[in-house]
DNA sequence: TAAATTTTGTTGCGTACGCAACAAAATATT
DNA sequence: AATATTTTGTTGCGTACGCAACAAAATTTA
């Protein structure tokens, strides 16, 4: 931790629930790691309706893609959904070899790359779901991914139906309807958030 | 170029049209930059139908996300769509400080980060399109993105209708139908691949 | 523990869009 | 330039799913 603050020039920033951590249209020269609280990235469609693009939980990263493209303006707003604490890292410090050639520095760089790669993989996984043609297949792809991650055919979903519907880009009612049918067809079993793939 | 081959331990690899550059289920410890030719990443759905996930052109990157997660198996197959030449970089060499502390090394690392971040931004842009509820809005989001990138309200689309339909995840016929309607409604004008946003 | 709020499930209706089939135009191949 | 292949546009049909509205269950707040 000390190393972060000294050679990486990290700083701690607090946000209140509802605050904008990044605003659409702004550029970034820092990225952040969420130490406490949660946030989401949003945009507004043409009709002014809010669309949630991603959810960020404790430990999650903010602005890691944007920061690697100096001058690019953010297409999204990141908003704190609770009071939050964010550890902000100046992007340039990743490369500024520190005087002591400290080991933390190199570690930070590797961590950053891991974070940004994982972000990409997450996006890929979501696209995998979104590309499926039917609600049923979207659900199955999502559940299978979770199942593989948890290495078990039974697992507890970390999100509720509303969020799941938004993630898969389907109507919540259509999601519920299809879940029922899938249970009926013996494809899956579930009770509340405890799911089982059969 | 010499520096790439010496300190980054890059190597040139040729693939014939149809060859697999990365196979689904395999792990990776190298990433590649496409020097010649083109490729696409694909997967097969449950019914065995091929789904194109991304297109890679000359200068594009292959396996940059996967390589940053040691041990993770590839969810996709990358297939050469023409004869190709790929410059392969061992991931670990990115961090192995070379004896001369050469400048290229650091540059390569920064380039890699730029590539991987851009990849993420591309995925984001596609998700932006996919999340739109109607075919018309999907098209508008896509065209607007291209328009912004080219900094002009008139531009030539780099892809044909089939590819565009796949990218937006809509039926090709539905895409054509809606393009006609949008032209009729005075939203856009186009002739073949020359588009104009009105 | 009662009241309020959020989450989940259900169902009828209407339509946007997937699908199939065909025609015309553009491009490639011989 | 004649043939074959690919790309684009068009249209009718059927249905999967968006939408709205309501009820029940679960969770939170007072």
**The level-1 CATH class of the largest domain in chain A:** Mainly Beta
The radius of gyration computed from the alpha-carbon positions of chain A, rounded to a whole number of angstroms, is 19 Å
| Terminal residue distance of chain A | 45 Å
User: What is the number of domains of chain A?
Assistant: 2
Q: Assign the structural class of chain A, choosing from mainly alpha, mainly beta, alpha/beta, alpha+beta, or little secondary structure.
A: alpha+beta
Helix-strand string of chain A = HEEEEEEEEHHEHHEE
Oligomer state of the chains in this structure? homodimer
Fourth-level CATH superfamily of the largest domain in chain A: Jelly Rolls
Number of strands of chain A: 11
- Give the low-confidence spans of chain A: none
By DSSP (H or I, 4+ residues per run), the number of helices of chain A equals 5
Mean pLDDT of chain A: 90
Task: Please tell me the CATH architecture of the largest domain in chain A by its name.
Answer: Sandwich
Helix content of chain A: 25-40%
Topology:
2 copies of one chain form a homodimer.
Chain A: H1 2-6, E1 11-15, E2 20-22, E3 30-36, E4 39-44, E5 50-56, E6 61-62, E7 77-80, E8 84-90, H2 103-131, H3 135-150, E9 154-156, H4 161-168, H5 172-184, E10 188-191, E11 194-197
Antiparallel strand pairs in A: 1-8, 2-7, 3-6, 3-8, 4-5, 4-7, 9-11, 10-11
Helix pairs in contact in A: 2-3
Chain A binds a DNA duplex (30 and 30 nucleotides) through residues 133-135, 160-162, 170-174, 176-180, 192.
């Amino acid at each position: 931790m000390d190393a972060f603050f000294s050679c990486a020039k990290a700083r701690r920033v607090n946000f209140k629930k509802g605050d904008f951590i990044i605003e659409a249209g702004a550029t970034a020269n820092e990225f952040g790691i969420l130490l406490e609280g949660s946030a989401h990235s949003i945009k507004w469609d043409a009709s002014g309706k809010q669309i949630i693009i991603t959810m960020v939980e404790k430990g999650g990263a903010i602005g890691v893609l944007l920061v690697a493209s100096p001058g690019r303006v953010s297409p999204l707003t990141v908003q704190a959904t609770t009071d939050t604490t964010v550890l902000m890292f100046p992007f340039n410090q990743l490369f500024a070899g520190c005087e002591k050639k400290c080991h933390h520095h190199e570690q930070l760089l590797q961590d950053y790359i891991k974070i940004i790669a994982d972000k990409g993989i997450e996006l890929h996984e979501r696209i995998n779901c979104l590309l499926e043609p039917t609600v049923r297949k979207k659900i199955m792809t999502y559940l299978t991914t979770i199942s593989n991650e948890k290495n078990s055919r039974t697992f507890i979903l970390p999100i509720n139906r509303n969020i799941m519907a938004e993630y898969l880009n389907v109507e919540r009612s259509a999601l519920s309807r299809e879940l029922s049918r899938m249970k009926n067809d013996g494809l899956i079993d579930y009770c509340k958030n405890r799911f089982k793939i059969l």
